[in-house]
Amino acid sequence: MSTLFPDMSIQQFQFFVREVYEIPNNRHFDIGEMLNQIQRFGMRGIKGIRKKDIEKIKKNLIISFSFFMSILNRLNIDIGEEIWKRFPYLCSYCNSCPCSCKEKKSVFRQVVYVDESKRPQTLSGFQKMFNEIYPASSRTLEHAGVHLAEETGEFSEAIWAYRSNRTDEEFKGVMFEAADYFSCLVGVFNSLNINFAEEISKFYPHNCHKCGNSPCVCSYEIIKNYES
Ligand SMILES: [Zn+2]
Ligand SMILES: [Zn+2]
Questions:
Q1: What pTM value is reported for the model?
Q2: Coil, strand, or helix at residue 205?
């Protein structure tokens, strides 16, 4: 039985996705096809923003996030680590909290002092951290949605770049973009003032949200025709 709680860490969710979806995803999808699923459900979530349909936003962005985790599992990327490296309670560009990029645009990131004691232990803690770096009050929900779409595209580009040459530099690009995607994903939930981890734990009370099994036994047909 694979169960999630609202106080889960990012790593616990990543592990949950491995337990429940690694086998079916390995059998059904290559990396490009999983990217497609991230986009498919991500864009449905963005449609939810336009339609002001909160349930649609929540459900689709959670499914999109689970496919995102499946890609990271396949590439053996520990996303919690990468997020902290890129956002150590500071904006990844201007090194401030809250972000002051609008006031001063820095071209290169300087070496920063990282205060390990501030590192969040839970997914909720990371969501709170991002709300302090990038306050929801400084943008609209639509703005947060556009930014998420942008970062989904950049993550996808980074994966394709890595798949073409397979250099270490390009792999680093994948890790950077993964952290950026995550920051924008929780940004949408901050704009909605909804606790992301709590929604994830409600969506996956036990095992796969659709078939209830761990590992998931949903057929390809079910995934292909999944309405959300
Ligand atoms: Zn900034
Ligand atoms: Zn299933």
A1: 0.95
A2: coil
- Expressed in angstroms and rounded, the spacing between residue 32 Cα and the centre of ligand 1 is 31
State the number of CA atoms in the 13 A half-sphere of 32 facing the CB.
5
CB of 216 closer than 8 Å to CB of 24: yes
Residue 133: nearest ligand to its CA?
Answer: 1
Q: Are 179 and 40 in contact (CB under 8 A)?
A: no
Gap between the Cα atoms of 141 and 50, Å rounded: 9
5, HSE (Cβ side, Cα atoms, 13 Å): 4
Q: What is the number of helices (H) and of strands (E) in the chain? A: 9, 0
- For 140, counting Cβ atoms within 10 Å of its Cβ (0-12 exposed, 13-18 middle, 19+ buried), the class is exposed
Tokens, residue 73: 């599992």
- Tell me how far apart the alpha carbons of residues 75 and 129 are, in angstroms, rounded to a whole number: 26
Distance from Cα 66 to the centre of ligand 2, integer Å: 12
DSSP letter assigned to residue 90: S
Report CA(90)–ligand 1 centroid distance (Å).
8
Cα 181 to middle of ligand 2, angstroms: 25
Over residues 4-45, the pLDDT tens digits come to 999 999 999 999 999 999 999 999 999 999 999 999 999 999
